[in-house]
Amino acid sequence: MSGTSADGISAAAARFTPGVGAGVRCTLLAYRSRPYNSAERERLLRAVEGASPEEYCRLDFDLGAWLADAALAVMADAGLASSDVRAIASHGHTIWHAPPAATWQMGQAAVIAERTSVDVISNFRVRDVAAGGQGAPLVSIADALLFAAADSWRALQNLGGIGNVTIVPPRIAPAHEVRAFDTGPGCAVIDGVTRSLVPSLPYDVDGALARAGTPIPEVVADLLGDPYFSAPPPKSTGRELFSRAYIGRMIERCRAARATATTGDIVATAVELTAASIGDAYRRFVREPVREVVLSGGGAHNPALVDAIMRAVAPVPVRRFDDLFFDGDAKEAVAFALLGWLHLAHRTGNVPAATGARGPRVLGMLSPA
């Protein structure tokens, strides 16, 4: 998959077997990340802002080739031949997301099938949106089937370009409802501010810039006034809201609010926005007795962001996904692999309580090898 942060492709090789009841067991065989270079990232970001039909067409096929290369590489890492792999599940890259009316992911599945000689399952969001849902978050089914705690409620908070949370009941009480929604920005605003102010950096490495600065609270409070944050779930968002134009306006607000604002101050404000939006969402919308918050995604590697989230959700303890399961960077790729496995088994892939769809649906479209 290619996340909203547009930092690169995540590829995982995973084996799934049926577990107890409706449960599933997962073994992660290999994981790798294929970073985008600056030209590739710019093409993806420009596509969100508007491109020509020719550029959309070429990007769809080029991205399919990049995804295929990533799949072949992780298969090689795991020692897998094409004949060993039942299917490749490809989320692709979201170009535009406007639920419940429409959603659009790129990364031509036919190109992946041709290059890998493996069946490809793609376009997971569209069926849920067609059924009146948000088409997101789709990792909820993996959170419920693979990552539930034994006897307590758990909040699984992903920090990709966009932040999303799944509220998962304990495995001993599967009848309880799983809920999920996008909390707001994850790393998209932090990374965008960093790239704008320090073009040589793709992101705030180890949170160093944020740690050197001080957040501007009035800017954070102003930004949290956006209607998205107060809208009740089910809901999802993306770069349609947290765009480069949004990032530019945020930088200007910081400079207007604090004439002496440093780069560190502005990055720290972006970090505080993400953390505060998560804390605010939990207070407004999470009614379940959550005993711990589990962080995954690129943002979980940013110590400044993790510390800010710990303060925002206190007194609930915060843990890293890596410490409980496997490399958290692989989590979303594994989740979409699971969606592919569920598609082949003709099992539901969406969680209607999370997406707002009219009912359970098998997700994805099959492109035979």
What is the residue-mean pLDDT, rounded to a whole number? 95
Give helix and strand order, one letter per element, not per position.
EEHHEEEHEHHEEEHHHHHHEHEHHHE
Q: What is the CATH superfamily classification of the largest domain?
A: ATPase, nucleotide binding domain
Number of strands: 12
Distance between the termini: 19 Å
Rg, please? Answer: 20 Å
- Shape descriptor: globular
The amount of helix comes to: 40-55%
| Largest sheet features | 5 strands, mixed
With strands numbered from the N-terminus, the spatial order across the biggest sheet is 9-8-7-10-11
Count of runs of 4 or more consecutive helical residues: 15
User: Briefly, what CATH class of the largest domain?
Assistant: Alpha Beta
Strand content: 15-25%
Q: How many structural domains can be distinguished in the coordinates?
A: 2
Any idea what the CATH architecture of the largest domain is? 2-Layer Sandwich
Instruction: Detail the poorly predicted runs.
Output: none
CATH topology tier name of the largest domain: Nucleotidyltransferase, domain 5
User: Structural class, judged by helices and strands?
Assistant: alpha/beta
Characterization of the model:
- The chain is of the alpha/beta class and 369 residues long.
- The protein has 2 domains: 167 residues, ATPase, nucleotide binding domain (Nucleotidyltransferase, domain 5, 2-Layer Sandwich), CATH 3.30.420.40; 177 residues, Nucleotidyltransferase, domain 5 (2-Layer Sandwich).
- It is 41% helix and 20% strand.
- The chain has a 5-stranded mixed β-sheet, sandwiched between helices.
- A hairpin with a 2-residue loop joins strand 7 and strand 8.
- The model has no long low-confidence stretch (mean pLDDT 95).
